[in-house]
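Lecture 7 notes: from sequence to structure.

We start with a single chain of 226 residues. Read the sequence below before looking at the structure.
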Amino acid sequence: MATHAASVQPSLSLTNPEIPNHVSHDPEKSQVEDELDYTQRGQWLRAALLGANDGLVSVASLMMGVGSVKQDIKPMLLAGFAGLVAGACSMAIGEFVSVYTQLDIERAQLKRERMSGGSSIGQDEEDKKAEQLPIPMQAAIASALAFAVGAVIPLLAAVFIHDYKVRLIVVTCVVSLALVGFGVLGAVLGNTPVVKSSVRVLFGGWVAMAITFGLTRVIGGTGLDM
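Now the structure, written as tokens:
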């Protein structure tokens, strides 16, 4: 038995060294892939979350502003719907122009490097850079859709509530929960601190709604025919 154990032991010692080498290589590969993944997420993540947050805060603030001087539900809903359509179009056009400008700049830089001949990167690296250039239409569509998704939230929160005070409270609560949700989602997808991101988004939304509500109420209380 001792002889048999001794004969088995060397075979184990020969195979074992291969296992740690293989395992130790995988985490490094995973880490690099994760880093690249977060970088590639930046373009669409920024456009989508910015659009959703803007849609939520803009339409909610608009509805709260109208609600500060009009207790009827119809003006709030009409203002919110108009804000949804106008905001989605504005976000799409603005994002398209912005990203297209960035695309032109990056294309011009690649062309200058190619013409000068002083670039140290190879053809494969250049092709890779070209593939990673921003896509204006993709960013525009993402911003418009995300804005609409965010803007629908306060509209749905108010549409079935006819009591004025209850409507304002429900809209505020629903929007607050959505702001926290967007903050958490952005932090998770972007690999950033969850609490800090959520608090920042929530506080910004509260400030926007409070300022819009307060200023509109002041203007409405000056005797203007509204």
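The CA atoms of residues 220 and 226 lie 7 Å apart. Keep this in mind for problem set 3.
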